[in-house]
Structure formats: C-alpha cells, structure tokens
Amino acid sequence: MEAAADDDVGSRDHVGSLERGLAVMEILAHHPEGMTLTEMAEEAGLTRAGARRFLLTLAATGYATQSGRLFSLSPRLLTVARTWLGGASLWTFAAPIMREVAAKFDEACNAAVLSGEDVVYVARIPGRRILSVALDVGTRLPAYCTSMGRVLLSGLPADELKTFLADATIERRTPKTIIGRAALGKAIDKARADGFAIVDEELELGLRSIAVPIADRAGRTVAAINLSTQSARFSVEAMERDILPVLRRAKERVEEFFFV
Amino acid sequence: MEAAADDDVGSRDHVGSLERGLAVMEILAHHPEGMTLTEMAEEAGLTRAGARRFLLTLAATGYATQSGRLFSLSPRLLTVARTWLGGASLWTFAAPIMREVAAKFDEACNAAVLSGEDVVYVARIPGRRILSVALDVGTRLPAYCTSMGRVLLSGLPADELKTFLADATIERRTPKTIIGRAALGKAIDKARADGFAIVDEELELGLRSIAVPIADRAGRTVAAINLSTQSARFSVEAMERDILPVLRRAKERVEEFFFV
DNA sequence: AACATATGTTCGCAATGCGAACTTTTCTGA
DNA sequence: TCAGAAAAGTTCGCATTGCGAACATATGTT
User: Fold this and answer.
1) Which residues pair with B228 in a beta bridge?
2) Cα distance between residue B204 and residue A80, in whole Å
3) CA A54 to CA A20: how far, in whole Å?
4) Cβ-Cβ contacts under 8 Å for A85 (sequence gap 6 or more)
C-alpha cells in the first residue's frame, strides 16, 4: 500500500477515510479472483469492521461486487476511466507534460506521428525562442531528416522500413543531411537501439533536435515527442546528457495514458 | 451524481466520506480539461471546504493533479484499472455473468472465438441438464452450423466472409443443416442484422442454441456467448422472447471489460 | 455433531470531517 | 495601475461520522 505524501496526512485538509477506501480498492485490483473480508482486513491493515465498511461502501457505490464471501472489483472503474480518457485527446492529456519539458529548457516541445513519408505535428508547445521553421499542428516535415521521423521510422516493421528506404524521396537540405540510403538505414537502426534520435542540422542549419518514441501498451511506436533547439544552445553531448533524461521521463508519463 | 443504494446510506456499515470522494473523482472524470474548486463544490453539492478536502486528498493519493487552480484526474486510475484487468483473463471476469445466465435457465452458457473454420470454446458454464455433445474449453466445432459460429462469421470483414463461404468445408449433419452456401450467407447476414443467431438442430438433432456476439470497444466481434438447450425445452420463439434479452444483458456486461 | 473459522451486528465513544467565518490571493474591468 | 469582485486558503469549535471491541450468527471442516 502506497503512502500518501506525508505532510498531508495529519492535515485537516485530508480525508483519511477516502484515502483508506482508495487503498482498499487498489488491493482489490491486485486480486481479480476476489477476496474475503478477513484477507482484506489483513492486507489493508484494518480491523475487520473497518475493512467491511469500506468493502460494503465500494459495493454500494458500484465499484465492487460481493458474491457470497468474496468481494471483487466491478467494471465501474473501467467505465470511469473510459469516460475520462474519451473526453479529450491524448495530446490534451500530454500537453501539461510537454509544457513542463518546454519550460525546463525554454525550447519548443513537439509531438508528431508518421504519415506516409512525413511526420505530421500533432501537438506543439512553443518555446520562448524563435525558431526559423514555422511549425504548427498539422505541419508536415520529411521523416528522414527529422528527429521525430527517425524514431518513428525505427518503429516500423522491417518490411515497411525497407520499402521506405528504397522508395522515399531523399534530398540534401544541408551539408549535414544524411542522403545515403544505407547510412540512413544505419541511423534509423541506431535510433531503435538507442531509444532516441538526435538530428543535428540535417533539416536546417542551426537547428538541432532530440526525439523519443511514444509506444502504446503493445510496444508499438505510435508517436514521437522531441525538443527542438538552436544548435548553438545545446551540443549533441549536452542534449544526450541533459535533455534526454527529461524527455524520457516525459515519454513514460505520456505512455501512462495508453490503456492497452 | 449517482445515488448509492438507498438502504445503505444511513447504515453504520457505510463510509460516507468514501462515497463522496468517489463521486468527486467521477465528476473529475467528466471534466478532463480540469476544474476549479468552486466548480467542483457546485457540481458535487458540497461546501468549498468539503470539496477542497476531497480534491486535496485525491491529489495526495495520486489520483488527481493540481495545476494552479485546476484539478484534474491523473493516470493513476488507468494504472489501477490496468493492474486489475491484467490479473485475469476476460473469461475469468465473464464467468460470474455467464453463471447467472446458466442458472436462470438451467442450461449451459458458453463462450467461443473463431479459429479458422471452427469455433473454439473458451469458457463454459455447464447447465444441470446433460447434453449429448461433450463440450469443454478447447473444444472445436464447425462455425457454419453453430449459433456462436454464425454470429462470429457475421462479424468478419466482407472479403474474409466471402472466402469462408467459398472455401469452408460444409457438410450435412442433420436434415436441418443449412448446406447451401448462398443460404448460409443469407443466414449469416440475418445474424448480423439481428444481432443474434438461433441455430435450430443444424448441428445435432435435439439441440437448439442462441448466441450473441461479443464486440470490443471498436465494435469488432471478438467472441460470442450462447445458451445451449434441448430443443424440447425452448421453442425458437421462446428463445427469442425469453432468452435473448437475458443474453443481451450478459453481452453488455461482458463488453464492459473491454477497454478500447 | 462438535469445533474452528469467518462473518455479521451492536453501540459507546472519540476522532474525524464538517462548515462558517475570516484572511489572503488572484482576476477583471475601468 | 488600482479597486473591487471573485476565488481560494485557513482556522477552529463542534457534532456526526466512523471507529473497534465484544457479542452473536453463519459457514466450513473433520
């Protein structure tokens, strides 16, 4: 049973019964086969009378069901969760997370999905610095030379990636653009192995970005988030050292919104 | 806000604070954009001080987050739900529901999925009456002449159903078996339009069954449940009048365990 | 049937959560 | 920028709510 933040427990702003009731609900979640009153009392550290009250209240409110001596969760929790998730898009939920990332580094934090040979921006938290590339939700950029594109491509099935590498339109945009298809394949493989990609002035001189993939519960890469910076601000090394851990944490938090 | 069962509210076995806290959580679920304290107090029918306590407790326990004046749910609810669902199979959760159906009619209630040209039994609640067909989890029966097969086939994409109708092994098992491929196609179309299928002595004389499809949140038919009876017990008309509503209710309850 | 175990019930009581009132902060419009 | 309105935060007396111990009943096991 996870403890609440310590400094709130003794406070008059705290409802201990709610906390204990939620803990009982969580214990039920760990026991889909059902639990008896005595088992719950032991596991929750409550008296039988106390555990019984919480179980009966969860049953009365529809969160649990009682069958003989066994209490178990009901699908109401799913209904509530579904209502919540269905009320807004993933990127609405992700926005506060991305906002924290953007604010921490004062740079733009973006999200994109793969569409054909492009990435399409699906969310964008501007930084305070002006980047020359005008970006907004809906903007398309070529996948091959963008950090988000690189990690998205790394999540493609092998045959699809092979087709992409064979067929994609690949042009030199800066002296640093990787235009060799074999070298690009290697860069994508590296992104897959690393779990991130840094694109260093391949799209545009002065522009450097780092991206991580967003995977659903089945492990499929469905989106990417990145931080775009002016290359004068962060070296490649600093990106990996300073930005990557933050971006990874954001990735994990966004992924919590995927259910299956 | 849904009321708890009235006869529990005044009881000493009831924890009102838990109930009110869960109600606050549900209201948050309807407001993914976040809510202020005053909005919550109004909607929950609480004083500001009361609403504030519940919100702060939900935040302290990790179920909600506070950003300035806005409170919103956190993904912890998803984590709990995921833990619960991940701890057992769908058919474990469905078993009590199917057991109620079986007990109501004293007949076997079964669940199956489509596998190739067959249905495979994935769950089975026996009735008290002995049916001559020995069935157990894992049993395969031909899809074309079973009620569950019929509704499962009705959920196939058109091209797959066309292939099935063209290629499937179809044999006469009783004088009532539909063996004409066009007629079978029509029966499957009828199952799709009706949302259920009755198979009347097509598999075996003396055996009649009625099935409904189980669909996931995207509307894809992924399984079926049925009630198998001796044909002497229930006429086709009685099945549709008496069993179908019960089976439909069970379908709805089982479908609540699908998240997306 | 006897016994052990688990659950249900009761009720005195104290602690927990209540809300009203006051204070502080934030927002809005001129 | 300032004044006023609105919203949120804080305090604390108090009553009601939830507590647990003890007893009663039901269920399971040998």
Assistant:
1) B108, B209
2) 44
3) 8
4) A93, A257, A259, B32, B78
pLDDT tens-digit map of A143-169: 999 999 999 999 999 999 999 999 999
Residues A224 and A100 in one domain: yes
Alpha-carbon radius of gyration of chain B: 24
Of A54, A87, A260, the CB nearest to B30: A87
Q: Where residue B242 sits, what CATH number does that domain have?
A: 3.30.450.40
Instruction: Work out the widest C-alpha separation in chain A, in whole angstroms.
Output: 74
**At how many degrees (to 10) do helices B158-167 and B181-194 cross?**
150
The domain boundary residue, chosen from B62, B83, B104: B83
Q: Are residues B59 and B93 in the same domain?
A: no
Chain A residues touching residue B80 (CB < 8 angstroms): 25-26, 29, 77
Contact at CB, B60 and A4, closer than 8 angstroms: yes
DSSP state letter for A179:
-
Residue B25 to residue A80, Cβ atoms within 8 A: yes
Q: Does B222 touch chain A (CB under 8 A)?
A: no
Strands B140-142 and B118-125: antiparallel
User: Range of A196's domain?
Assistant: 88-255
In this structure, are A208 and A104 located in the same domain?
yes
- ipTM of the complex as predicted: 0.89
Residues 8-37 of A with CB under 7 A from strand D: 12-13, 17, 20
Lowest mean pLDDT among A21-35, B41-55, B68-82, B128-142: B128-142
Same domain, B67 and B111: no
Residue where a domain stops, chosen among B83, B105, B127: B83
Q: What are phi and psi of A125, to 5 degrees?
A: -110, 110
Backbone angles phi, psi at B49, to 5 degrees: -60, -40
The CA-atom distances, in angstroms, between B30 and each of A5, B2, B23 are 26, 13, 11
Tell me whether residues A92 and B54 touch, CB distance under 8 A: no
Q: Is residue B111 part of a domain?
A: yes
- Judged by a CB distance cut-off of 8 A, whether residue A163 touches chain B is no
- Which two structure tokens, joined as six digits, stand for A228? 């775009």
- Total domain count, chain B: 2
pLDDT digits 0-9 by tens, B172-201: 999 999 999 999 999 999 999 999 999 999
Distance in Å from the first CA to the final CA of chain B: 24
In a domain, A260, yes or no: no
Give the DSSP H or E segment for B117. none
Q: Any idea of the CA torsion for A185, A187, A193, A194, to the nearest 10 degrees?
A: -160
